[in-house]
Amino acid sequence: MEKYRVIFQNSLDAMMILNPSDLSIEEVNKQALELLKEPKALLLQEEVKKALQKAIQERKQQVIEINDQEKRSLVLHLELIELEHHQHLFMVIKDVTIIQKTVSEKTADLKLAIETLHKSNQLKSDFVSMVSHEIRNPLSVLKSTLGVLENTKLSVKKRSEILHIMSRHIDQMIAIANDLLDISKIEAGIMHYHLEKISVYRLFRTMLHHFDHLSKESGVEISFQCDRSHCIYADELKTEQVMANLINNAFKATPKGGKITLSSKLVDGFLEISVSDTGCGIAAEKMDLLFKRFVRITDAQHHMKGTGLGLSIAKSLVEAQGGKILATSELGKGATFQFTLPATAIPIVVLVDEDMEFSEKLSHYLEEEGYKMKQCHSAFRGIEECQEAKPNLVILNMELSDLSGIECMNRLKEVPVLKDLPFIFLSDQKIEKIDQGKREKLKEMPVVYKKNWEKELLSILKKQVQTLVQRQVREVSDHE
After folding, report:
1. Is the pLDDT of residue 34 over 90?
2. Which H, E and C letters describe the chain, residue by residue?
3. Domain 196-342 is in which class?
4. What is the percent of the chain with per-residue pLDDT over 70, rounded to a whole number?
C-alpha cells in the first residue's frame, strides 16, 4: 500500500481516494488540495453524488464534467478499485477551463478566418468584374472614336478633341495596369526602394505643375504651404506616386470652386505630409475601409473610377519606408490624408567661386532644388564659411586667385570635423584640357565644366549628398 501512496502523493494530477460505503474522503494528494481548496464541497454536488453511486453499482468508470463554485470546468474520472483486498473509490480531477477556452477561441478564430476568406473571395470576384468593366469602357470609347477618326471631313479642332479623349482613356488603362503590377510586386516582396534626401518644397512644386491642367479644367484650386527646409529620406518616385494618388482622389471628391491644400510639418523626427480638400468628405462607417484592397468608396452622388487599389498601394509604399498613413474626414466637410516619412535636415552647400553672377545663378537654381546655399567669392572666405556652417558638400572653382581649389580642399581636410567632406570642382576648361598634374591630384573627385553645369552638376550633387545621408543613417543605426 505504501508504494501506491508515494505514487498517489507525487502524481501531477489532482486525486482523491474515497470510502465507497459512506463516500467519505480517505486521502487527498497535494495537487487536489491546491486545485479544490475545499475537497468536501465537490462531493456535495448532486451530479457528483449520482456519478459516484453509479460507479459503485455498475463497477464501471464514470466520466463527468461539472462547473465548480469558481465557475471552472472540471472533468472527473471515477472508478471503483481494489487495493490489498479493500475497495476504494478512486477520483482523478482535471481542470479543463483553459483547454476549453483555448478551443473556443480557436474555433472562433477559425470561423472568423472562414468568413474573412469568403469575403476576400467575394472582394476578388467583385474586383475582377470591376476591372473588366473599367478596361472595357475605355476600349469601347477607343473603338468608337477610331471609327469617327476615319471620317476625313473632320475639322482639325474636332480631330484634336477626339485624340485628347483617346489619350485620356489610354491613360486610364495604363493606370489600371500599373496598379495591378504594383500590387503584385508588393505581395511578392520584390518592390525595390531607392532612398535619398528629397526636398518636400520641390516635391510640392512638382505636384502643382503635374496637376495644373486638371486644376484649370475642374475649377478646383490647388496650393501648398511648406517650409523650404523640410526634407525627407525616401524613394522619390514612390513618394510622388503616393502624393499623386492622394491628390487625384482629392480632385475626384472636390466640386468646382473647391480647394486642395498640400502642407508639411515636423513631428518627432518625421515629416507629416498632408493633402486636404473641401470636397464631399467620407462617411464615418466607411473610414475603416479606406486602405483595404479591392475596395472603392462610393455613394449615390460620387462614383469613384479606378481599381480600388490606390490607397492600399499608397499605404504599403509609405509603411515600407518607415512611415504611417491615416485619414480624417467629416461627411460634407472634406477630408485630410496624412502620411509620415523620416525627416532629414536640408543639405547645406558652400559654393566658392569668384564669378558673382555665375554664383548667384547657380545658387538660385540649387535653392529651388531644395539646397541651402552659402556663397563665397574667395578661397579663404570659403574656408571660414565651411568651419562655421559645417556644410554637407562644397562646390569649388579650381582656378581661384588667393588659393587654388585643390589647396583650399587640402586645408579644409586638415580640420577634423571636415575631413570626410565631399567636394565637386568647377573648371573653366573642358576636362580633357585640365593639366595632367592637377587631374592626378584630384584623383576620383568629380569635375564639372562650368559651361555645361546644368547638364552635369545636379546629378553629381544628388549622388554625393545621397552617399553622405546613407552614411549618416548607418552611423545612427550603429549607435542605436
Report:
1. no
2. CHHHHHHHHHCCCEEEEECCCCCCEEEECHHHHHHHCCHHHHHCCHHHHHHHHHHHHHCCCEEEEEECCCCCEEEEEEEEEEECCEEEEEEEEEECHHHHHHHHHHHHHHHHHHHHHHHHHHHHHHHHHHHHHHHHHHHHHHHHHHHHHCCCCCCHHHHHHHHHHHHHHHHHHHHHHHHHHHHHHHHHCCCCCCEEEEEHHHHHHHHHHHCHHHHHHHCCEEEEECCCCCEEEEEHHHHHHHHHHHHHHHHHHCCCCCEEEEEEEEECCEEEEEEEECCCCCCHHHHHHCCCCCCCCCCCCCCCCCCCCHHHHHHHHHHHCCCCEEEEECCCCCEEEEEEEEEECCCEEEEECCCHHHHHHHHHHHHHCCCEEEEECCHHHHHHHHHHHCCCEEEEECCCCCCCHHHHHHHHHCCHHHCCCCEEEEECCCHHHCCHHHHHHHCCCCEEEHHHHHHHHHHHHHHHHHHHHHHHHHHHHHHC
3. alpha beta
4. 86
